[in-house]
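Summary for the steering committee. One of the milestones for this cycle was to obtain a three-dimensional model of the protein with zinc ion bound, which we needed before selecting residues for the alanine scan. The sequence and ligand used are listed below.
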Amino acid sequence: MEYDLIVRSGRVVDGSGMPSYLADVGIKGGKVVELGRIKSGAEQTIDAGGLVVAPGFIDHHTHMDAQVLWDPYATSEPENGFTSVIMGNCGLTLAPVKSGGEDALVKSFVRVEAIPRSVLEQGVPWGWRSYGDYLDALEGKLGINVGGLVGHIAIRQYAMGEESVEREAGQGEIAEMCMEVRSALEAGALGFSTNRNVRHVREDGKPVASRLASEEELFALFDVVAEFNSGVIQTILGGGNRRERFAFYQELARRTQRPVIWGGVSHRWTSPDLWREQLDALGSTFGAGYRPYGVAHSIPGIRHFTLKNAQVFDEFPEWKKVMFMPEGERKKALADPGVRARLRDDLKDPRPTDFHRRWDIVQVEKVANGENEKYSGKSVEEVARMRGEDPLDAFLNLALEEDLDTTFLNVNSNGDPQAMGEILRSPYLLIGSSDAGAHVQYRADFGYATTLLALWVRKRGVLSLEQAVNKLTFFVASVYGLEGRGLVRPGYAADLVVFDPDTVDACEPEWAHDYPGGTKRMIQRSVGVHHTIVNGRVIFSDGHLSGDLPGQVLRNSACRRAGAAPLG
Ligand SMILES: [Zn+2]
């Protein structure tokens, strides 16, 4: 047989953003070898008729550092079409570490990333010292490809021990940190991450180590990445105002000439033009030739609520008072004209709030009584017009008629299709971020790619399938310097996802008890993802993980070139 695997008759969306086309994909030795009408046979054939064949998605913002040690697939990544993940974000890594320093790293992960301590104690088989040792420990044990940034918190703890959470570093310590960052990059780290977020503390209430770094230390470490001339710098800044922070990122991008990854750009109804301001500012920095990439989230900030359980209004004192009353009393209060007048005044308070106070955005999602079906899917403003009432009255009266069982839907962020189209298409923004492996008992955003394809491509049409796939694949590979990945082209790694563009979507997150010790966490399944293929081998097929371990550690190109040099 000439090929190991042929994926036949699919629509190839190749990751470049170019128009898709019908072709077979021939794979041998983990790489795409041939595209088009392939006559020869293969050991294994996948029929992709009616389906899309795309490069596997790359999840660039994860905290999978621990999970990949007990879960080689980094579930639920393959289920959502991901073939590669990048970990070590926000300054947090499990290496480098000196003997006895392990627990200090656990302390940061437990609090900042909300991974239960018992899970880390049972699931992390310590033993490595350098960042390279840690990457080596993963080699051969992965189902999915894994790359990592080296984290400032571990670097600082390594050089200073527990004093890293007490004080600024001295010259000698800064020099040691620089050496460790350098050695991590030489071993293949995809960059360096730091964390200045003022809310980020350890389990013991002390600040995470990186927050105590002086500007001198920070720039010394950033300069190591610049000098190495490979890898990204990922940052979370705290303190100062948004503009000051933004100026810092721009300066950093200029000084290092490396891709700098900073925080999120989103559309919020409460500051509906901020995103445009941010994109304009990014445009001028990119225009000058520097790369401070922002991150956009594809999942809208949706809340479903009834007036039995609503928290949407808790920031308004009168509303909060009423919402905390026992149900019987609450119903009486909501019907009382005097109370209603106060609720109305509450919403008129001009101070900025999270809730946008717009009845054209709050929707009736599900009615409780059949006769009200005509209101389903309508905004409260439309319902008010249909009933000849004022919106607030319509909202409260409908809920009262249905014994407070009407389900409403509200979107505070990332809901405006026009703004989201511009944000998601922006060449200055990565699309992410799952934060997968973190906050495991609070949220699961593994489905940001499947949501992008379902909501923003199929339902809203704000970007084409080709554009969306590009943003999930080659775009990420290019920013992070992942050579030979992110395109379906001869010579590229055969990391592929085969999905149905008419049905692909993310499911609601659900509970699983699959963390070490049977600890529960949230996972997220998908629909319409038929096959996920890593380095030419199928790891996920029609709902099942294969058990195969074809994943590789993704190392930066400078390291790979150095490694390849002796072979000529
Ligand atoms: Zn993070």
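Key point for the committee: The radius of gyration is 25 Å.
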